[in-house]
Amino acid sequence: MDCVRFVTHRNQRILLLDFTDCKAEEVATICDRVPEIVTGEPVGSVLVVADFSGAAFNRNAVERIKIATAIDRPHIKRAAWVLAGNLPKALYESVRSFSAREFPVFDTREEAMDYLVS
């Protein structure tokens, strides 16, 4: 199944970025694909959930996350992340600061998607 795809939750279209159990190199590769998809959508229209459950991170992966989140910022209506304590707070803060965006963090994908459509 594709790691970047649109899903429907409560009759709302959400872009799912599924990084579940990905190695750091896979996280980086997936991040490179996201801006092209997001920037093809209308400004301020995209609901996006990034599920990082079990994902690994290294410096390159975090840098690619930062770039992707900055590029697609104008197109995002609301975003949420699923993290299980696997991304150190300092790295999370660096992404948030660089992209000038907020990423509420949830324990499950379901909680994150409920937030997005609320």
List the helices and strands and how they pair.
Blueprint: E1 4-9, E2 12-18, H1 24-38, E3 46-51, H2 59-71, E4 76-82, H3 89-99, E5 105-106, H4 109-117
Parallel strand pairs: 2-3, 3-4, 4-5
Antiparallel strand pairs: 1-2
Helix pairs in contact: 1-2, 2-3
Describe the overall structure.
The protein is α/β, with parallel strands linked by helices. It has a single domain (4-112), classed as 2-Layer Sandwich (Transcription Regulator spoIIAA), CATH 3.30.750. 41% of the residues lie in helices and 24% in strands. It has helices at residues 24-38, 59-71, 89-99, 109-117, and strands at 4-9, 12-18, 46-51, 76-82, 105-106. The radius of gyration is 13 Å and the shape is globular.
- Domain count: the total is 1
Q: Which value, in Å, is the CA radius of gyration?
A: 13 Å
Major beta sheet, specifics?
Answer: 5 strands, mixed
Q: Give the CATH topology.
A: Transcription Regulator spoIIAA
Indicate the low-confidence ranges by residue numbers: none
The proportion of residues in beta strands is 15-25%
Structural class: alpha/beta
